[in-house]
Specification:
- By secondary structure, this protein is an alpha/beta fold.
- It contains nine helices and eleven strands.
- The two termini are 20 Å apart.
- The relative contact order is 0.15.
- About 12% of the residues have low confidence.
Length: 326
């Protein structure tokens, strides 16, 4: 593996090649087998934390691009510093300081008339108050959606959907707007983002998309909410990821995990899946037996074989590669 770096303290959790290594190795194998390791495909990381998935995959596949979303402001700042320690990576990362939710969060903010929307370049959609002092991941119970000001220990982050984020990314990368190669944070602005929350115009996305190879979700119970806000991207054969990596817990306390599992399998059609931790495949793998941690598992979801091949072919079509990749 190629050298990867983090800024400051080094631990199992911050080491890109140690933390969740058994999952990342599988992703590396998928990149290689798909002939995309030297291509500028896109990965989506919801719950970026310290950026370990982006760093590991981005260094291993040194032309790949990443859309990473992290709601916790403390983790986001540390993630930025970790990106900066890896030469060539910052210019390939679009990092959003935001919380991924469902489009229901937007009800009541705007009418269907685009002329009623604010003309400000600043984000004026829903927001969430997050504890700015915490180093932990953001759970549903850790933040509260608000239209009011946050407390002194909290900071405000935008509440967005996957559809908004990916449309913003594809619009930005398809435009002629120049971008500093050393700048990875990509602030959301009202003008190029919010309309996709109300107008599901797939043509707008598809015309600029097709290069999304995988998605990873680890947002501590908010996976179902995030998947609800990913309907345009995950439902279209022209935009959906070929592979999805997601942490699923089985808990009567938080049934959202079960909803996320069935949304992946039944709604979005990722019918090939297995528990990476235990090795159990398909229906035998769910509910999770808790090989690593009680009642939870890390899953890889794949499209059915014929659709998976079509998806990989689509990604190849929408990427450029070095001469040694195919």
């Amino acid at each position: 593996m190629k050298p990867a770096y983090t800024c400051g303290e080094v631990s199992v959790w911050t080491n890109p090649y140690l933390w969740e290594a058994h999952q990342k190795v599988i992703l590396f194998d998928r990149m290689q087998a798909s002939g995309l390791k030297n291509c500028n495909f896109v990965g989506l990381d919801l719950g970026g934390a310290r950026g370990d998935w982006v760093i590991a995959a981005g260094v291993e596949a040194n032309r790949s691009q990443y859309v990473v979303v992290e709601a916790n402001p403390t983790l986001f700042r540390k993630m930025e510093k970790d990106f900066d320690t890896n030469a060539g990576l910052p210019g390939r990362v679009f990092a959003y300081s935001a919380a991924a939710k469902s489009d229901a969060s937007f009800f009541g903010y705007y009418s269907d008339n685009e002329n009623d929307h604010s003309s400000s370049q600043e984000w004026d959609g829903p927001t969430m108050c997050i504890d700015a002092s915490s180093n932990e991941g953001v759970m549903d119970t850790a933040g509260k959606e608000t239209s009011n000001s946050c407390s002194e220990t909290e900071t405000t982050v935008p509440v967005v959907t996957v559809d908004i984020i990916m449309n913003d990314f594809w619009t930005s990368t398809a435009s002629s707007i120049s971008r500093d190669k050393n700048t990875h944070q990509h602030p959301l602005s009202r003008s190029n983002s919010i309309t996709t929350a109300f107008h599901d115009d797939d043509d707008t996305i598809v015309s600029k998309a097709g290069n999304l190879f995988f998605a990873k979700l680890d947002i501590e119970g908010s996976e179902y909410e995030a998947l609800l806000g990913a309907k345009s991207v995950f439902s279209s054969k022209e935009t959906r990821p070929c592979y999805v990596y997601i942490e699923i817990k089985f808990s009567s306390v938080n049934p959202a995990y079960d909803k996320a599992f069935h949304m992946m399998k039944d709604t979005y059609g990722y019918t090939d899946f297995y528990d990476i931790d235990s090795g159990l495949v398909g229906n035998d793998s769910y509910p999770p037996i808790g090989k690593a941690y009680e009642n939870e598992a890390n899953y890889e979801f794949r499209l059915p074989t014929s659709e998976l091949e079509e998806c990989i072919t689509r990604v190849r079509k929408h990427t450029s590669c070095s001469s040694s990749s195919r």
